[in-house]
Amino acid sequence: MVSGAVGGFLDVVFNFNTQAFLDDNLLDQFFRVGWQMAMFGDETWLKLFPRLFTRHDGVSSFFVKDTIQVDLNVSRHLPEELKQDDWHLLILHYLGLDHVGHVGGRKSALMAPKLREMDDVIKMIHLNNILPQGSKKGETLLLVVSDHGMTESGNHGGSSYEEIDSLALFMAPNSEAHREASTTKDMANQVDITPTLAILFGVPIPKNNVGVLAVDCLHSLTDVQKLRALELNSWQLLRLLKAQLPSLSCTDSGSSGHTDNGWSKVSHCNGTAEERFCCLYSNAAVLHRLWKSTGSSADSGHYYDRTAAAFYDFLTTASGWLTQKVTDKPVGRLAVGILAMLLACAVLLRLLFCLRQEEHVEGNQGFSDMNIVQNWSLEEVFVVAVIIILVTSMGSSSMIEEEQYIWHFLTTTLFWILFRKTIQILPLG
């Protein structure tokens, strides 16, 4: 959300041993331009961005049963912070709503009171910033965002619609944007927040960003500034494309010779990935240059729409390709890994056979592998079954995301086996 890069599955593991975040990101950009920042909430921010916050108070995210105090520890700082004028960025990361989901799911009795509590927090911040035009705090942007959704049972981190469906709400006290009703079609990817905030606050877009600028959130900018922002976003994504596709060489040469008639000469883009990217980028560059030449003519509004659409064609195509490139894994290596796991299982099973055979070799010279299997104890069968189940489950992303349920059933089964074993060894009478 602060770097514009797509996270991988291993990021979940790394979150348990969080280290400083070294990739280019918005907070580092803000720090470089002299911003004072304060953070209250999830202590992960302090681990990812050490020494960036002037004031902070971190809370732990591992006490999932705590749905009250974890948020009160954040809100208690809010009245005093809203009186201060020495910060440029205030981050409040509330964990209570997430904890309610884990404890009781989306329909928990605790959900409605917690949502009302969050409403009160947003109301306090919003009313505090409705100040006269020209006031320093009157330029404040309030961004309400959730980093994930949740299923009916309160789980998140997977790829289902409920888990990836989240909220981003931009509120500016002096903006006219509130007069335009929001609709469900206003959708964006989480990575799109990064370039949008970078443009709004006049800092460079992080170099590894794959997000697309949300121009609908830039009501304070003129058409010239919006197209310039789209151009900057296009340059940044084009640089990432060139890093992935060394043969990519895009120019908009020849566009300078176009006149107004050039609006009808925009190319249709087909061919290889490199050819499509270059074609889309060149179309946007040509239309941008032609739009500049129209000045303030009566048709400039129509030309602006076409130019913005051309930029978005390139940006969405490039962003989608880069995102897929991050999540795509080499099939060959995955196949080798699966074969290695299966081979390890086969070796383990063979070792178990050999051990059992050695136990009976003196008294049963003709003891076969089939006889060994038939004489396995229930505990041995369970151990082998667990290994096979776990290895098999690693082949499905859905099974990995819901791995806790596998362990729930396996643990319960283990307890029943131990209970049965205990009953068997108890002396009779």
UniProtKB/TrEMBL annotation:
Gene3D superfamilies: Alkaline Phosphatase, subunit A (3.40.720.10). One of its GO terms (molecular function) is CP2 mannose-ethanolamine phosphotransferase activity. GO terms for cellular component: endoplasmic reticulum membrane. The keyword Transmembrane applies. One of its GO terms (biological process) is GPI anchor biosynthetic process. It comes from the Eukaryota. The chain crosses the membrane at residues 334-355, 376-399, 405-423. InterPro entries: Alkaline_phosphatase_core_sf, Phosphodiest/P_Trfase, PIGG/GPI7. Keywords: Membrane, Transmembrane, Transmembrane helix. This is GPI ethanolamine phosphate transferase 2.
